[in-house]
Amino acid sequence: MRRTRLVVVLVGLVLAGCSGPGPSAGSSSGLPPAPEGQRLAGVCPETVVVQQNWEPEAEYAGVYALVGPGYTVDADRKRVSGPLVVGGRDTGVRIEIRAGGAAIGFGAISAQMYLDRSITLGMIGTDGAIKSSAGQPVTAVISQMAKSPQIIMWDPASHPDWRTIADIGRSDATVVVQKDALYAQLLVERGLLRADQIDQGHTGSAVRFVADPTIAEQGYATAEPYVFQHEVPSWGKPVRYQLLSDVGFSIYPDALSVRTGDLPALAPCLRRLVPVLQRAQVDYMAAPGPVNRLIADLVTRYADGWSYSIGVADYATRVMREQGIVANDASGPLGGMDPSRVQATIDTFAPVVARSGGRPKPGLTAADIATNQFLDPSIRLP
Questions:
Q1: For domain 150-247, is the CATH number 3.40.50.300?
Q2: Is-annotated flag, keyword Signal (predicted)?
Q3: Model pTM greater than 0.85?
Q4: Which of 89, 93, 110, 170 is 20 to 30 A from 82 in CA distance terms?
Q5: Fold match between 11-144+251-369 and 150-247?
Q6: Class of the CATH-defined domain 11-144+251-369
Q7: Could you give the CA distance from residue 291 to residue 86 in angstroms, rounded to a whole number?
Q8: What is the Cα–Cα distance from 298 to 280, expressed in whole angstroms?
């Protein structure tokens, strides 16, 4: 799913992005080796390549937590690479994390994965996997977020009586969303909004909301509420919102996925790598500071107009825990994907995709697009 997010161009960040590359990587990380069960050398690719669907941000921190010291930054291609570590120990392979969005022409991650076979894992939501299931099938192996942080937000001063998205639907207010947003079609089909309220002109800029606070607009619980209050001087006050996950947007967002045909060959790697990803997310939630600083530093170095401050990152971490965006799944472990929920999402969104001109795989099932077989069921958030 293509992500559109508020862009606040901060001159200081853009100038800071002109600094030199990150520390040079040597032939060895100099770190102690990981325990045998977490050693990835010989079973995983020498470099595990992860393709994000957007710019660096805290929602992806469970992957960035794997980047060890001595990492290098390719600011031109928007990539960071270094030893893949867990718990401060070297797993014996490297990790490369590639930014999405503008860095890949805003293309779909499934398409990017089939175009570039060097990608090991791509971040694809359940809705995206449904869309690509016929021609470019992918299978999610872990979802480091339990639910989507996407929201519809509004100005509480302009609409003091609104508490939910359904309240918006009982008004004549415009709701600004990104083009072809499946969740907007879902909201209309469920009678929460009317089709004539939907405006697909969302650009990621704060200008329209500030200029006309009577509208409602898409956003992310992990960013816009903080950014509008603390980083948009022309606004500088709270917004109110409801999570789309509260009204039926049941996707697992940004789930780490492989090309379905590659699943058997990657299975030996995934049996060790997926628990490492689980552990990295637990470690991040316990001590987010270093990873949040890495993410903010990468945004600065990439210097492509996207801005992301430490303040936003720290806020995002807190919201992800408080609102259950990062949480143990109903299926049991952190990172799990409840098959009944995945199937219900297919049942909901496959018809929506088809009505939008897409062609999901006929008879698509949860097992086609998600598996829990590589998860360690004992790894959970405390």
A1: no
A2: yes
A3: yes
A4: 110
A5: yes
A6: alpha beta
A7: 13
A8: 19
